[in-house]
Each structure stands twice: as structure tokens, then as C-alpha cells.
Amino acid sequence: MNIETIAIHAGAQIDPTTGAVMPPLHLSTTFQRSADGTYPHGYTYIRSENPTRQALENTLCALEGGKCASAFASGMAAIMSVFQALRPGDHAIMPDDIYFGTRKMVDELFAPWGLAYTQVDMTNLDAVRAAVRPATKLIWIETPSNPLLKITDVAAVAEIAHAAGAICACDATWPTRILLRTLERSADLAVHATTKYLRGHSDLLGGAVIARK
Known about the structure:
Blueprint: H1 3-9, H2 51-64, E1 68-72, H3 75-83, E2 91-95, H4 100-110, E3 116-120, H5 125-131, E4 136-142, H6 154-163, E5 167-171, H7 176-179, E6 189-192, E7 207-211
Parallel strand pairs: 2-3, 2-4, 4-5, 5-6
Antiparallel strand pairs: 1-7, 6-7
């Protein structure tokens, strides 16, 4: 199926009452609950799930060819969710050229509670291999990098990560699925600031993480 077709139809929810082809904005914070305490429609509370957000997640998941997706209020929230899966004492490898917000987040929020990290030139695979430690749990890719537009071989770095028992996550904000099939290149997670090219009009803030499995 062509990428254009997936973008249009994936996640579509035809309204059973009106037949509307565009999903509405569901603003309800709570959902119907049966007498036995179950939720017949599968939604419990807006913080955990919401039909509108689910439609977006389903679309992004289909575009990336992933198993599941989570949408966030910003790109940095999406990035933070990946790093929050790490524990004190863990080690991460990141590009030497990286979005300043990501570097600032790691320095100010995660390094103080014990996350170690090494920055390397991701275009140099020998440098990536040399940076791996026994405690390495994450190799973070950004391609093209921000701001110098360095290109990383996602599949090669993912292979290094998996050999070390680490997760490979790729910030694919700039290329999007149109230019980079992140998960097909064996990255475990595709991360997006949907604020940028996925939306393209500088009129909303958002982020997403799509998992390969």
C-alpha cells in the first residue's frame, strides 16, 4: 500500500451515528462504566486513553510499520519517556551533534540521578562500538542530526546496540516516515516531535514514540 494511502486511511474511525469520515475531538474526561465496574467501550479516563488520540496513534503506527504507538503533548515529552525507562547507573550513547533540548534534558534531569552518557560521532561506527560499556542500555540516534544534518546508518548502529543488549531509539523528526523507514532499519523505537514536519504548519505541539515490537 502506498504511503499516501496509509496516511489518509490508517486510523480512520467512521462515526457509527452520523457516518462522519473525520474523527471528532473527544473532549470527555470520563467514559461510560457498566454496573459490574467494566468499561464496555474500552476507555476509562482521558489521561490513559482517548478515541481522538488513539486515532493519531493508530495512524502513526501504521505509517511506521510498528506494533504500537504512544502520542505525547510535545516532542520533548516523547523523548523523555524513552530516557525515563533507564535506571540510575545505566549508560546511554548519544550523537555528538544532537538537538540542544535533548542534551539539556539529559544534563539537567537524568545525569543528576545517575545516568551516564557518552557522545560520539554516529557516522563513525568504530567510535560507536568503542563507546559501548557493560552498562549501556540505550543508543540514541538522531538522523539527520540537528543542526549539522549528519546522517547515521540506522541499521548498523541498531546491530551494535542489539549485540550489546541495548535498545536502539531513533529521533526521526526531520525525515519522518516519508524519507526514513526507521523501524525497518531495525531501530526498536521511532521517536518524533510531531510539531515539526509531521504537522508542518507550526500551529501545534506534539510528540510520538512508535515501537517495532
